[in-house]
Write a structure and sequence with these properties.
Radius of gyration: 25 Å
CATH topology: MetI-like fold
Helix content: over 70%
Distance between the termini: 47 Å
Number of helices: 10
CATH class: Mainly Alpha
Structural class: mainly alpha
């Protein structure tokens, strides 16, 4: 009878133990911080869920009637920003990775990376002081000529500080994030896939459609979700540009616009006291849940095609 081979365990050196222990501590710290934030939000939000609605600012029928327009405004502004930013970001990414000369591609890449570092307050100042007055005549033209479309129904805003202006500002803010990530994913496409498509007679666009985009689809989803997370949580730019109201409206050019959860917290927290603070924290909990759900959906979408991912 042959004896079982003896397994020889490698001796762990001090550096190995320090590195593995540090990595474990860093990973555990993330979970602890996330749990701490969640516990704080839940504990501070409970009074808002249990309080008499008459004590909430504006005296809504219930807390959910208070937070409903805020959730709508947050999701609506972020969705509009994605609709504007995603096609432009994909076009820029493909141009940099597969069409532009190397020198031009490098310059555009650096410019996109620099745009991602611009503070949000700068975008807010630009949106409120430059974009809104400049685009207001265009809004007036839309309402005058396309007012029969519900999203352009009159009256028109006289200042240009509408939900559409906020969406444009948010689109400019998330454009560098989506573009930079998609560019890196497209550049990771195996050259053999591209050359095989070209060898079979495909044009450059057909090669991109058959080889580059399918390979980078999980990375594109990840980039879009990161941009969506930035748009959902943006505070100062929205607070500086938007003329807010507690309404649910799909009209893009109206003087009354739905506000967002972060902007509402930023505008009301300095003057809040007592139960008003708990109400604002409770709206922050709702935003936390929305963001967590968005990230979970992104991970699920990416994991469906993990074998093709250039981002995993």
């Amino acid at each position: 009878m042959t004896a079982a081979p003896v397994r020889i365990a490698a001796k762990k050196r001090l550096g190995d133990r320090l590195f593995s222990g540090g990595a474990l501590a860093a990973g555990s710290l993330i979970l602890v911080v996330l749990a701490g934030v969640a516990i704080f939000l839940v504990a501070q939000s409970l009074p808002a869920f249990l309080v008499d609605p008459s004590e909430i600012k504006g005296e809504p029928e219930s807390f959910w009637h208070y937070v409903g327009p805020l959730v709508f405004g947050t999701v609506w502004a972020a969705a509009l920003a994605l609709i504007i930013a995603v096609p432009i970001a994909l076009g820029i990414s493909l141009f940099i990775s597969h069409y532009a000369p190397r020198r031009l591609a490098q310059g555009l890449g650096y410019t996109i990376d620099l745009l991602a570092a611009v503070p949000s307050v700068v975008y807010g100042l630009w949106g409120a002081g430059v974009l809104a007055p400049a685009i207001q005549p265009f809004y007036a033209w839309l309402v005058e000529n396309l007012g029969w479309i519900p999203i352009f129904a009159p009256p028109v805003s006289g200042t240009g500080r509408t939900i559409l202006t906020v969406a444009i500002v948010l689109a400019v803010m998330i454009l560098p994030i989506i573009t930079a990530l998609c560019r890196e994913v497209f550049l990771q496409t195996p050259k053999l896939h591209e050359e095989a498509a070209l060898a079979l007679g495909a044009t450059r666009w057909e090669m991109i459609k058959m080889a580059v985009i399918p390979f980078g689809r999980p990375g594109i989803v990840s980039a879009i979700m990161l941009g969506l997370g930035r748009a959902l949580g943006e505070t100062m730019a929205v607070a500086m540009v938007l003329s807010p109201a507690f309404i649910i409206s799909f009209v893009l050019t109206s003087p009354q616009n739905p506000t967002t959860i972060p902007a509402n917290i930023a505008l009301n927290y300095p003057e809040a006291h007592g139960i008003d603070v708990n109400v604002l924290i409770a709206t922050g909990l709702i935003l936390f849940v929305i963001t967590f759900a968005v990230n979970s959906a992104a991970r699920w979408a990416v994991s469906r095609r993990k074998e093709f991912s250039g981002a995993n």
